[in-house]
Amino acid sequence: MAQRPYIVGNWKMNGTRAMLSEARAVDRAAQRHMKVEVALAPPYTLIHAVHREVEQIWVGAQDCSPNPDGAHTGDISVPMIADAGAKFVILGHSERRQGYGETNELVREKADAALEGGLRVIICCGETLETREAGKAEAFVAEQLKASLPKLEDAGEKVTVAYEPIWAIGTGKTATVDDIAAMHSMIRTLLIETYGEEQGAEVRVLYGGSVKPENAGEILGTPEVGGALVGGASLSAETFMNIALAAGDTVEG
Ligand code: PGA
Fold it and tell me: Helices 20-32 and 44-53: crossing angle, nearest 10°?
């Protein structure tokens, strides 16, 4: 693996200031395990507080508005999350696509806004169980990504893709290593087509969906898996950092 594994915790709609101690514990552990790049995406309300508490890890948001400002009640813009200390934003998570009808086009607009505002982006993709059982998972994810990925010259550094089969999120089910390998290899081909040989090879492709310390070693050792997007298991610093340790074990040296 050319780059350090990237382990991102997505706290979803969990956490009040009482959770800051977990963020501090993650940060302390991350300082001891520099083979792995660790990041946390707390809810908007905690971005600034987490940012102030940590030294090593990056803090990000779980969504953003495509608009920079204006009359958009309840929305949060890229300049706002950047000002709070966010360095990246997760976009197109299936819980947003399914719960709020977010389309590929909207995900792409948000990605353009985030990049314009100096943030990096994690673009999520993934199929339903129905689509997988119909044998259409790879075709579906390819279409989703083609329409969601932003266009830019230096994607290798700024864009990360997270493949999260919807049926594996929060369910305790994970895709088989063969299915993960096949999907990630297809995504790599698509990234090279989109961004060119050099940049396309550098974009990290994370796996997400019920990643736990027990299955992390196997999943993170799969070819083309550059890290993990972790939901439930990121709410405890100890569990989350055990995933990061498993990631570190997949790296030589
Ligand atoms: P999970 O969530 O680890 O709880 O399955 C992953 C995600 O939705 O990012």
Answer: 50
List pocket residues of ligand 1, CB cut-off 6 Å. 10, 164, 169-170, 208-211, 229-233
Mean pLDDT over the full length of the chain: 96
Ligand 1 atom index nearest CA of 212? 3
DSSP state at residue 68: S
Annotated active-site residue in 164, 184, 202, 224 = 164
Helices (H), the chain: 20-32, 44-53, 78-84, 94-100, 104-116, 129-133, 137-148, 155-158, 177-195, 197-202, 213-220, 237-249
Distance CA 187, CA 39 (A): 22
CA of 230 to the centre of ligand 1 (A): 5
What is the per-residue pLDDT across 19-68, written as a single tens digit (0 to 9) for each?
Answer: 999 999 999 999 999 999 999 999 999 999 999 999 999 999 999 999 99
Over the stretch 120-145, which tens digit does the pLDDT of each residue have?
Answer: 999 999 999 999 999 999 999 999 99
Distance 232 CA to ligand 1 centre (A): 6
